[in-house]
TrEMBL record:
Subcellular location: Cell membrane
Annotated membrane topology: Multi-pass membrane protein
One BP annotation, GO: L-valine transmembrane transport
Main location, first listed in the record: membrane
InterPro entries, A to Z: Brnchd-chn_aa_trnsp_permease
A cellular-component GO term for this protein: plasma membrane
Family that this chain belongs to: Belongs to the AzlC family.
Keywords for this protein: Cell membrane, Membrane, Transmembrane, Transmembrane helix, Transport
Transmembrane residue ranges: 13-33, 40-62, 128-151, 157-175, 184-201, 207-225
The organism of origin for this protein: Arcobacter aquimarinus
Cited Pfam families: AzlC
Name of this chain's protein: Branched-chain amino acid transport protein, AzlC family
Length: 228
């Protein structure tokens, strides 16, 4: 196989995401069918939407029969942070050719955290290495959500608290980022921005405002962060 080395290394690097995505996807599938939706909606959503936070929120959209405009606005606010991820990876994805649209689509919080915390092997074909890494990640999520939906369709039990699984993964990724950076200041800024938005901003705009506020503070204290 031409890109066997890229495939092998991408799989090894993606194992932490596999451990989280299969479990999280399983939880999403269980939660979806617990509201009496068909199991096949789980793989369809995981293939075309593929954004954990929005997929969990989408279940509530379905339940309250939200309008298309409301869903579009809420989705934009939830996923606007992805724009900042993409901007920081422009140089990495610059020479990926026809694979670039998929790399942009498949970029998630977890894959971004992984891409920004690992060192690239200069001997690898970066284009295919990135593709395999992001493809594996989506496959794990799709597999987990499908298995969870099928399991939940056949075995009924209490799913209360499953929605917290996504938050748990974010906490683990935050810890891994700190271990990599060894600098508490950016995390303090993120914490401060979140608390500010939680107290003073309406819940439907809290995420966007906290991201913007955090970015402003990061630019203000850029030199301090780099020196540390």
């Amino acid at each position: 196989m031409k890109y066997k080395n890229e495939l092998s290394i991408a799989f090894k690097v993606s194992i932490p995401i596999m451990m989280g995505y299969i479990v999280l996807g399983f939880a999403f599938g269980l939660l979806l069918v617990s509201f009496d939706y068909s199991w096949y909606l789980a793989p369809i959503m995981s293939f075309f939407i593929y954004t954990g936070a929005l997929q969990f929120v989408a279940i509530n959209f379905f339940n309250i029969k939200a309008g298309y405009v409301d869903i579009a606005i809420a989705s934009w606010f939830i996923n606007i942070r992805q724009a900042f991820y993409g901007l920081s990876l422009i140089k990495r994805f610059n020479k990926t050719g026809k694979l670039k649209p998929y790399l942009i689509f498949a970029l998630t919080d977890e894959t971004y955290a992984l891409l920004t915390s690992i060192k690239d092997d200069e001997n690898l074909n970066k284009k295919w290495y990135y593709f395999f890494l992001l493809f594996f990640s989506q496959f794990y999520w799709l597999l987990g959500s499908t298995l969870g939906a099928i399991f939940g369709s056949n075995i009924k039990f209490n799913t209360q608290g499953l929605e917290f699984s996504l938050t748990a993964l974010f906490v683990v990724l935050c810890i891994e980022q700190y271990k990599s950076l060894k600098n508490i200041f950016p995390f303090f800024i993120g914490f401060l921005s979140s608390i500010f938005a939680l107290i003073f901003i309406p819940s439907d705009k809290m995420l966007l405002v906290s991201i913007i506020f955090a970015l402003i503070l990061l630019f203000i204290f850029e030199k301090k962060i780099e020196n540390e």
